[in-house]
Each structure stands twice: as structure tokens, then as C-alpha cells.
Amino acid sequence: CMEKQMKDEL
Amino acid sequence: MNAFRLVGDLCHLAAIVLLLLKIWKSRSVAGLSGKSQILFGLVFVTRYLDLVTNFVSPYNTIMKVFFLSSSIATVYLIYTKFKATYDGNHDTFRMEFLLIPCALLAIVVNHEFSPMEILWTFSIYLEAVAILPQLFMISKTGEAETITSHYLFALGSYRGLYIMNWLYRYYYENNFDVIAVVAGIVQTVLYCDFFYLYITKVLQGKKLQLPA
């Protein structure tokens, strides 16, 4: 899902 | 990685370095809210639990380590080394009024009901309001040292730049996280009146004084 990619942010 | 997020991270880094510089050079934590720094420390601890399990990039790991260590060091400086200069009488915002609602909201509104995801969501909600004790303290003392206002400006700008980063990622990477975006907007809005004072006062060379 899309949110998983957001865990590349600080 | 895009320019908005990189500049945002550098603003965040600058804010933390500015704060440490202020404390170290003036040998004082006067005007600083220890409670906000504790909350920021908690934000980093609950957000970077995946520091060792989820490697993203050398940049990501180095920044996480720096943010974690510097926020813990800042709390240490305020409550032990320079405790004598800590203005506890004006740092009276009740942290539980932030911690409990953020914890409850993180349990109810999240992407996935798992410990890591709930802690990450909690850190996102908490970061949005962690500056409130500091802003509250400035409103009580009626003023802030110039370097403290530069710190706040950099800190407020970082999440504002992240909003641009999220817009960019939405349009070009079809990537969107409503929780991070809504909390980021709330966080940036909380700085607006400070931004106004900073631009109209501090950038004119005046000290940051709140209208009495």
C-alpha cells in the first residue's frame, strides 16, 4: 500500500 | 528524495544545531521549554524504533542517529548540566494534555493496528503539538532570545517544506499519507503567528516581543 513508502522519511 | 524534503531536513538539522549552539555559547537554557524538548525526544524515540531493523539509506540512518542523540543531549543539558538556568516557573504547560490525546488518537486513527505502526502514528501526532509548551512559555515570558526565534523559525519551516514534499510526492510518485499530511499541516499552522512575529520583528533587527 502507498503508506509503506512514506516510512522512508525522517 | 526531492529538494523540498532535503531542504526540510537541513532546516530541521539547522534548528537542532542552533539550539545546541545557543545553549553551549550562552551556557544557559533560559527561555527554553524543557517540556517541548522532552516531547521532541519522545517523538524521535517512538518514530525511529526501526533504526536498526529497517535500513533505508546511509543518509536516513545518519540523520536518525543525529536527531535521536541531539534531542536526548538537549534534554540532558536542560535538566542536569544547565539546570540552574532552567526557567521552570514559566515552563508550565501540562504535557499530559498532549500525550494522552495523541496516544488515544494513535490507537483509534492509524493505518495498521500494530505496535510499530501505532508508535509511529503517535510520534506523528505528538510532533504536531510538541512545540506548544515552548510557544506557551514565550507567551508567558512575553519575549524570546533572537537565537531562540531563529531556532523556532527553522523548526517551523522544516515541516512547512515537508508539506511541499508531500505535494510533490503525491503528483509525481503517487505517494500519499493522509496522517502525516494532516498532522504536518496542523504543526505548521501552529507556527503561523510566530512566523508573523518573526518576519515583522526579528528580521527587522528587533527582539521578539509579544504584544503585552
UniProtKB/TrEMBL annotation, chain B:
Location within or outside the cell: Endoplasmic reticulum membrane
Gene Ontology BP annotations: protein retention in ER lumen; protein transport; vesicle-mediated transport
Coiled-coil zones: none
Keyword Protein transport part of the UniProt annotation: yes
One Pfam family matching this protein: ER_lumen_recept
Entry's Gene Ontology molecular function annotations: ER retention sequence binding
Keywords associated with the record: Endoplasmic reticulum, ER-Golgi transport, Membrane, Protein transport, Receptor, Transmembrane, Transmembrane helix, Transport
GO CC field: endoplasmic reticulum membrane
Record's bilayer topology term: Multi-pass membrane protein
TM regions (residue ranges): 62-80, 92-113, 119-139, 151-172, 178-199
Family to which the UniProt record says this protein belongs: Belongs to the ERD2 family.
Protein name: ER lumen protein-retaining receptor
Source organism of this protein record: Bugula neritina (Brown bryozoan)
